[in-house]
Amino acid sequence: MYYWFILLIGIERLAELAVSRRNAKWSFAQGGREFGQRHYPVMVTMHSLLLLSCVTEVAMTDRPFVPWLGWPMVGVVVISTAVRWWCVAVLGKHWNPRLIVIKGAPLVQRGPYRWLHHPNYTAVTAEVAALPLVHSAWVTAIVFSVANALVLTVRIRAENVALGYA
């Protein structure tokens, strides 16, 4: 069942990439400028390896499903995915995992952005920790939580510079 859950998350990520491509095309047509091109492939690779590592750790170490941990972590993954798609909906055509900024576009301050500067990254952080823990893949949870923190440190700095540009 866990492998199907990971597959579903992978399909959801592919849907995000489709939305991203469409929005990037629109943003560039509006004069958008891309920042942080060097860290974007690292982000994509890290998230791909996260899914692979979830499956690999569970398969190779025979990690058990522990209901008192697994079910709450499923809830965290579902809620974090919902928050991420809420961010996508609120940002509309401006949403993109690539860092594309249209000069003069207003800073969004509605939806989850009323409360947090980076609600998508908060949701991603929760998801990166929770997804492996659904099936007790604690090594993956630790390794990728640290990797995600490092990537987000670079990403948020780049995003703050880019938003200053706007």
Automatic annotation (TrEMBL):
Compartment(s): Membrane
Transmembrane segments: 65-86, 137-156
Membrane topology: Multi-pass membrane protein
InterPro entries, per the entry: ICMT_MeTrfase (IPR007269)
Major place of residence: membrane
GO biological process: methylation
Keyword Ribonucleoprotein attributed: no
Pfam families xref list: ICMT
Sorted UniProt keywords: Membrane, Methyltransferase, Transferase, Transmembrane, Transmembrane helix
Gene Ontology MF terms in the entry: methyltransferase activity
Listed name of the protein: Isoprenylcysteine carboxyl methyltransferase family protein
UniProt lineage: Bacteria, Bacillati, Actinomycetota, Actinomycetes, Mycobacteriales
